[in-house]
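Technical note accompanying the year-one report. For the benefit of new consortium partners, we illustrate the data format agreed upon in the data management plan: each record pairs a sequence with a structure-token string. No post-processing was applied to the example shown here.
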Amino acid sequence: MQSVDNPQQQEGFNSFLQFIRPSTHRTQHGLHIDTNSLGINFTSDSRRRSMDEDKAYGSIYKELSFPHDRHPQATEEISNYPRLPDLSPSSSASSVTSNNEAGHSHTLLSPIPARHQRQLTSPGIATRRCEIIRRSNTLPSSHPVVSPIGVSASSWGNAKSPAASFLSSFASPAEPTYEFDGDEIGDYVLGKTIGHGGFSSVREGFRISDGKKVAIKVTNKTVEINERENQRVQIRLEREIAIWKSLEHPNIVQYIDALETDYATYVVSEYCPNGNLLDMLIRSNDTHKLTEDMARPLIIQLCSALAYLHDKVKVCHRDIKLENVLFDEHGSLKLCDFGLSEYQNPTHATHSPGSPFAEFDEGEDSAGGSLAYTAPEQLDQQQPVKCPSADIWSLGVCLYTLIAGRLPFVDEYRPRVQQQIKTGQYTMPENISSQLEELLGQCFNLNPDLRPSANDILTSDWCAM
């Protein structure tokens, strides 16, 4: 059997095989629909297809170049390392945290209400319009929005038969409003969910054209809060894409692509399989501390990324923390998550002052970030502090935590944490070098103008040891 190269022919074969493929599905009310090439029968039999049937139809799809029509295998569980309260404060809304879920994970993709349907993307920030393609019939049949036969209404659009007309009444929407493991979008296949943030999730994925593993950040186009917050989320995503796609540095997670449907935006990036700095610190030893010699190359790589951002592209990251520093397959450090990033120079702003979205660049929750890593000058401001020195304070928190095994500013009562930060109250780690003690003191200087730059840290006595 020859493989099908023409996309239209491919879709036709897929629709045809979905029609003739014997299958038994349970509806929400317990009804079973058995479809085959001879007709349509209704039965209450709960028998599932045998392994021989699956193997036979799997080989047919393989011959037709549909490699993704398969039953998902159970995902391997990832060990959950204990999260220490003093190491892992509350995350910011833009952050991605570990979320190890086995089995079928899915995300509801809500359609955009009419009041949100104005264009949110600036002309220079292009995303490719795509549709989700559901190759495999692996959706949980009890799900209220899932078709009991796993086909879309468009699949039956050109079919002229009583059977097709009947089945079309059971078909799911032309574009799925849920995403599942194995769905395709553009040149990518979605895998299991590996992380989540306030308004997004991150999935493993791979690129069909070359098999390269990637990470895919999925952000819904509507959030379940209010219209203003929804538009703020979309503006932040737009800004994140605009900044991230302009970056190129060996210690920054590489942006690859951005796609969108009517329901969500998919940002594709380099995949970093070896966890983040917090995971590494927790796994390191019983004390959850690193020696200065172990921490030094990590801080040098992080400073290299910050020096590039601050001096080369004039960007403030604004969310430097252990969870946002990843390790790639080679063990190299990679800075990620540019959801709160801002240009230092206002003329680089994504929206001009006259833009209808300019109002969302300001506001009481625009400051963002994680409190434990926040610079004191930011605590008194409702608008973002777009200054590199704020990132240097956060870098100092990372360095302190790696060496001491605890955060410098931490308390269960948030106002006390804020007071500690504003007054610079922290206990210097014991048994550290004088060079490191001096560097930490400089990073935690309450006067932002007196903090060192990223390049100053790279040339400091401690980094030169």
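Partners are asked to follow this layout when depositing records. The mean pLDDT is 74.
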